[in-house]
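Internal QA ticket QA-208
Title: Verify multi-chain structure generation after dependency bump
Assignee: T.L.

Test input:
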Amino acid sequence: MDFTLPNFAPAMPEIFVLSMACIILIVDLFLTEHTRVVTYLLSLITLIAAAVLTANLDTAEPVLTFSGTFINDSMAVVLKLFIYLITFVVLVYSHNYLRTRQLYQGEYFVLILFAVLGMMVLVSAHSLLTIYLGLELLSLSLYTLVALRRDSVSASEAAMKYFVLGALASGILLYGLSMLYGVTGSLDIGNISSHISTSIATPAEHSIVLVFALVFVLVGILFKLGAVPFHMWVPDVYHGAPTSVTLFIGTAPKIAAFAMLMRLLVDGLGDLHSQWQTMIIIVAVLSMAAGNIIAIAQTNLKRMLAYSTIAHVGFLLLGILSGTLNGYASSMFYVIVYALMSLGGFGMIILLSRAGFEADRLEDFKGLNQRSPWFAFMMLILMFSMAGVPPTVGFYAKLAVLQAVVEADLVWLAVLAVVFSVIGAYYYLRIIKLMYFDQPDDVAPLAAGFDMRLAMSANGLAILGLGLFPSGLLTLCARALNP
Amino acid sequence: MEHIIFYIFSAILVLSALMVITVRNPVHAALFLVLAFFTSAALWLLLEAEFLALILVLVYVGAVMVLFLFVVMMLDINLTVLREGFTSYLPVGALIATLILIEMALVVGPEHFGLDSVAAPVPHTAGYSNTQALGNVLYTVYVYPFEIAGVILLVAIIGAIALTLRRRPQTKYQDPSQQVLVRSKDRVRIIKMPSEKKRGGA
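Actual output:
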């Protein structure tokens, strides 16, 4: 058979991250508890170097390699860069947290790098096979990370729930993918898309099977995003996992799940838009309703942010269901902004925590203004942004998504979304009230180190800065999808 | 003839799969699973996928299920606790399962997958090698998915070790380097003693 060597250049970042993860795995064996900082620094360097490699890729034209199973386009580059950035900050935030909780193991960093690799594969997938494999690589690393603190009962319980439900969702997704393969006879997303567009032009013979496959595929994706009614795992996993792991699960994988949604639904099944639009409308409304209303009843900040994630996923889906390039770009903007906000939100819990004390209850934020006016202000920005108050970036994210919905002639949906976000504003503002108008129960000074404080301040100011000048990121997202 | 063989094996496969989830004894369930793997391997043979059929028997029956049986036998699983609430959930579960089955049959019935919509595969000639065909594409066309599957296995190994390996203070373990370095005087102590006289009569 004739075979030419594939073009390795577009996959250089993946190859690099994989090699570095293996090197770190071996280097870590020779380190003791005191020199483990080497593992941490190597992981940070890996992320920076991967970002440099990714940024240098040529994206004028989408490049396919490895027999069409791998694609590199501008969307992949932008999403990967944000995945590195967010993982980098996650590592900076969690460094001190891990050291005080007997979680400071080399496996933590290696597994995070493997999860990053899984996300990269997912973002660059151009075949059903690579989508599934990337997803499994990501999920398997995440299950292990949740269970890593094995003496904790709640972490083990969370890992078990995550694993069982995640395996079920993978099975459902795989069933849908096999149906797709059965109908179209191809694993390649481009071939699937062209097969569907021709079979829809002629009297649709397979279309009912296609819709059947679509339902299963959609369930699989929505589970990973954590949309209602596939959200049951989100609060338990977020609550039970160590905060540094929750920080990771709640941020970067959402970007990867968005990429999976784009690759499968928009690139692959784009011609079935009229079919999946209705399904997503129902899921989006349910997510915004359940997320925002149940979050009011929470007293644990991690659970509250978990329900707020569900509500944000509902908003994210609004942009997708509009089915326009503008809508996809606004969703991409939303998911990046959401990842940055949630990074700050969970980072704040880590900032207030110290050895033997987890600041994950709402009362722990009481009177934060008297203890540290600067970080109370950062939390204020984050909460305003999550609620969608101008001039923070959360406002523009919601605005862009709502514009896309209105352009798609779904004004009622936009009105409903606004109503739910007003309901949601209540529990975000409650935290601000606790910080500024209540007396602190706990007056211990913040234990966070300088790197943590610096990263947290940069995180908060980025939310504010992007809110004042949102056009840069907006055009970046628009251009990434429409080069 | 091929049809009859297909239906016999399919019937055994479905029945044994059903037995896996209904029998009381977990060892029997595992053995029924072995039977299910064997019959599906036979079905693959009918599809001219000899290599995959043999791999299924070798890997799943030979390795995975044996390991599974070990675990089942070593763990003392309390069956009565596992079966608690089975009868109370049964009506709801059965109802939903039947509903889904009927809906699926209505939506994706055989009319969508008949020979008129999907052409019958051309039978291969006698000299066709299944193994060679797989080997040709595995490291060329599918090299990227293949490598990622390898990484997934690596993560599984790391995860399994990270979650189970821990040093308990009371654990006794051997240190090979110490064992090699040991010298005779560390182990054997030669004590000089005056020789004793034989007692008479003994």
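Spot checks passed. Residues 121 and 186 of chain B are 74 Å apart (CA to CA).
Status: verified.
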